[in-house]
Amino acid sequence: MANGYGLRGFSLLTLRDSDFRLILLIASTLWIYSSILKFPFSFPSNYNDVGYLWIRDVHEGHHNLQIPYAQYELEYPQVIGALLLFSQAVSTYFPFVLDQWSTFVVVMSILEYPFMIGTIYNLYKLCAKLRINQKRIYLYVLSTLSFVVYGFYNWDFIVAYFVTLSIWLFLDKRYDWSAVTLTLGVLTKFTPGMMIFAMLSGLPNWRARFRFTAIAGLLWTTVNAPFALANFATWIKLFTGYSGPNHQLQNTWISMVISAAGLGDIISGARAGHILSFGIFGYLLLRALASKRTPLEKILLSWYAWYGAIYLFDPQMFLQLFPIVVLTPNFNFLFYRLADMLNGFIILFYFIGSTHPELPRYITDQLTPFGMINIFSSIRQLIFLAAYFICFNPKVQNRLGRVYDGIVDGFWGSVAGLTGPLHAAYAKPT
């Protein structure tokens, strides 16, 4: 593609921009470290969904080299399905890293690496285009606990890559290619599909909206039709199976509300939780679409609405929000770091019950609504929900700024009362 979207633009920027080369070096070394933490031959080898899927579908399920969606059920869409099949083939015929399992995980890390780098590149170019400080990539992506813990863990950087590319193309008014890359994001995970409404509202006329929708729909249908025709009963489980409409409430404040209201637990109250979750998201989305925000702001708001209210917010999904936060200049850094820290804690404490079964249930039970893990998850999620209302509203920001200043003044006034007068240079931080 022209305008720097593809490999040529990436190569030119790498040759000409020393700052970008430094970002690439840091991102690459962190990726290597994040991957090594998950490789089966490492000790200790940390849990990751990539390795788990090999155990579930190959070792135990005996689906090696079978076609997903036609010969066996897979909850991830076709882009991930293709990567899984390729990794299975390499690890089966060329197990060059100790054994088949280790080779599978290493190959997947190699395959995902370009998408991570591509996400960084897209963000770097978007920041330049929008006059956003590119150092935000360091602060909000590369220096996070979530990058190290979940960078190589699932496939969320692939989602982030297609989302950033789609947004970039959309802002450059290359709407056809934006529709294509958005669809590729949906063919990786379903989540990016929710931003199509904000994109459609930002198009110049109804003809453009119809064309955008038709391109996206045609590509999605072209990819899915062969599987639906081959084995409809298995293909449909992509939408109704593991993570379908009956999925439990997981890592969300929604489960707290449902439990406190007496509507059930994370399983029996799932349907009520889904209704509440989608009801809140629908309201927030319509609120954003009806506002006078820019098309980009509406896209960003749709992401905060989704992850602020969704009933399933597993910690690796945090990576999908990396570019969204980078493109939101008014996202409070302190609260973001708090969300990132709590997000990292989720998996670090997730399996504590297996090694310390004597601990109280609120610590060992990962999914109980008012347990430690879900409290971490809920606070993290509510920070993103708050971002929806605060980051794009200068009036609210000013009010909260005055409250913050009042708290700081009160704190330092109390310190002075306890310790006596302080030198003016130390009386209050700037």
Helix/strand structural class: mainly alpha
Query: What is the overall pLDDT average?
Result: 92
Please compute the radius of gyration using only Cα atoms. Answer: 23 Å
Note the total helix count: 22
Helix content: 55-70%
Tell me the number of strands.
0
Low-confidence stretches: 422-430
Strand content: under 5%
State the major sheet: none
N-to-C span? 47 Å
Order of helices and strands: HHHHHHHHHHHHHHHHHHHHHH
Number of domains: 2
* Morphology call: globular
Structure description:
There is one protein chain. It is globular, with a radius of gyration of 23 Å. Residues 422-430 have low confidence and may be disordered. The protein has helices spanning 7-16, 18-36, 49-60, 78-93, 100-130, 136-142, 145-150, 156-171, 175-186, 196-201, 206-230, 232-235, 237-240, 254-260, 270-290, 295-309, 322-326, 333-348, 352-355, 361-364, 372-390, 394-419. The protein has two domains: 1-244, no CATH class; 246-392, no CATH class. It is an all-alpha fold.
